[in-house]
TrEMBL record:
<dbReference type="InterPro" id="IPR005828">
    <property type="entry name" value="MFS_sugar_transport-like"/>
</dbReference>
<dbReference type="InterPro" id="IPR020846">
    <property type="entry name" value="MFS_dom"/>
</dbReference>
<feature type="compositionally biased region" description="Acidic residues">
    <location>
        <begin position="463"/>
        <end position="472"/>
    </location>
</feature>
<feature type="transmembrane region" description="Helical">
    <location>
        <begin position="102"/>
        <end position="122"/>
    </location>
</feature>
<keyword id="KW-0812">Transmembrane</keyword>
<feature type="compositionally biased region" description="Basic and acidic residues">
    <location>
        <begin position="484"/>
        <end position="494"/>
    </location>
</feature>
<feature type="transmembrane region" description="Helical">
    <location>
        <begin position="74"/>
        <end position="96"/>
    </location>
</feature>
<feature type="transmembrane region" description="Helical">
    <location>
        <begin position="194"/>
        <end position="213"/>
    </location>
</feature>
<protein>
    <submittedName>
        <fullName>MFS general substrate transporter</fullName>
    </submittedName>
</protein>
<keyword id="KW-0472">Membrane</keyword>
<feature type="transmembrane region" description="Helical">
    <location>
        <begin position="422"/>
        <end position="444"/>
    </location>
</feature>
<dbReference type="GO" id="GO:0035879">
    <property type="term" value="P:plasma membrane lactate transport"/>
</dbReference>
<feature type="transmembrane region" description="Helical">
    <location>
        <begin position="252"/>
        <end position="271"/>
    </location>
</feature>
<feature type="region of interest" description="Disordered">
    <location>
        <begin position="458"/>
        <end position="494"/>
    </location>
</feature>
<feature type="domain" description="Major facilitator superfamily (MFS) profile">
    <location>
        <begin position="37"/>
        <end position="448"/>
    </location>
</feature>
<dbReference type="GO" id="GO:0015355">
    <property type="term" value="F:secondary active monocarboxylate transmembrane transporter activity"/>
</dbReference>
<dbReference type="Pfam" id="PF00083">
    <property type="entry name" value="Sugar_tr"/>
</dbReference>
Amino acid sequence: MAPPYFIRNLVPRREKRTEGRPLLEALGSLTWVQWGHFWSGWLAWTCDAIDFFSVSLSVSRLQTQFHKSNPSDITTAITLTLLFRSVGAVIFGIISDRYGRKWPLVVNLILIAVLELGAGFVQTFKQFLALRSLFGITMGGIWGLAASTALENLPVELRGLASGVLQQGYAVGYLLAAVINLTLVPETSSTWRSLFWCAAGLSAFSAFVRVLLPESEVFIRAKEAQRARGETTTNKTRVFLHETGQMLKRHWLLCIYAVLLMTGFNFLSHGSQDLYPTYLKDAKLFSDHNATVATIIGNCGAIAGGAIAGWVSQYIGRRLTIIIFVLLTGAFIPLWILPTSFSALAAGAFCIQFGVQGAWGVIPIQLAEISPPAFRATFPGVAYQLGNMVSSASAQIEATGANNLHTTIRNSAGQLTVVSDYATVQGILIGVVAAFILVVTIVGPENYGSHFEKHKTAFEEGGGSDELEDDMREVGSRPTSVQVDEKRSTSEPV
C-alpha cells in the first residue's frame, strides 16, 4: 500500500523544485531597487521586534515603576499587544493589497514611532496598557507588509534564503533591544524609558528609508494595466471587495489551516522568548547583566538558524525543513532548562533559538506561496496575527504557572533558595507546542517554488479566485510547473 499523500509529498517532486540559476548568479542579477525593497522590509520587521521586546526586557523595571509585585501584571501589556495585532493586520493588509505596499507601510511605521515614543512618557499603569493596546494595532500591520515588500520582487531562486534572513530581522531586533538594554539603559536616569525612545527613533528611520524607494513593481504594472483599460478608483474598490469575498469563499479551509499553523508557531516563539530574561533572573538567579548577555547569545543562534533553514528549504522544500528544525528544538529542551551555570544555559539558549527561529525562517515564504496570490499582504498578515491573538496569553500562562510551581536551587553562596519553577513550565509548553506544529505541518499544503508575482492583484477581476499551482492535490491530478508556465504564457500579463 502506498504511503499517505502528506507523507510521500514531504519532499516536493523534482519538477516543483527550484532548479533555476545558481545562488550567486541570482544574487548578482538583483537591481539596487530589489535590494532596497528587501532590506527595507527587513528593517521594518527588525524595528517591530525592538518595539515589542522593549517590554519583555523591562519587566522588572516596569514592576518598580508602576508598583507591581507580580510579573504577570506587567505581562498583561504583552498580552494586550498580541491580542490587538490581528486588528492591525486586517486593516493594513487590506489597504496594502488594495493601494500598494509603499505608503501603507510608511504610515504604519510612523504610527508605531509615535506610540512607542508616547509609551516612554506615561506616568500610570493604565496609560501604559492603553498605549500598548493601540501599539498592538499598528504593530499588527508590519509583518504582512514587510514580507510582501521584501519577497515579491525577488527571483524565485532566492526566496527561501531571503525568507530566512527576513524573518530573523525579528531576532536582530531582539538582539539590538537587548544591547540597548545592556549598555544605554543602566547609564541613563530615564532607565527603561530610554529603550522605548530609541525604538521610536529607529521606527521613524525605517519609515524614511521606505519613502526613498519606489512602489512594488507588481503594483506598478497592475496599475498601469488598469489605467490603460480606463478603470476608475471606484470601480477598482468595488472589484476589490468582490474579489475579497470570492477569496474567502474559495479558500476558507486554507485560512483555518494557516491560523492553526501560526498559532503553534507563535506559542513556540513567544513561549521561548518573551519571559526568557525573567526566567533567568527569577528561576536561575542570574543578574540583569548576565540575563541580557544570555538573551543576546540566544538571538545569535536565532539569526544563524533562520538563515540556514531558509537556504536549506530552497533544496528540500518548506515543510520538511520546518519538521527538521522543530525536531531540533525538542531535542534541545533539556539543555535549555536543566543546567544552572551561565555557560550551559547560554548554550541552551543558542541551540533552542537555532531550532525555533530556524523553523520560523521558512514561514514568510511558506505563507506567501500558499496564500491566495492576490492577497499576499492580507492573508499571511492576518493568519500570523490571529495566531498571535490565540497565543497572546503565553507569557501570562508561564508567569502564572511559575508562580504556582516552585523548586529549590542553590544560589551563588551555596544556600538553598526557593524559586518560581519557570524551567518546568516553559519546557512543558514548548514540548507540547512543538508536537502540535509537527502534526499541523505534516498534514498541511505546500506550494514550493510558486511564481505568485505573475498572478493578478486584488483589485483586478478574477484576483480572488486566481488559481495556484499548488501541491494540495494528489500527484498526477495537478499540473506540472511546465504546464502552469505554458498556461500563464497565453494569459494577459499583470
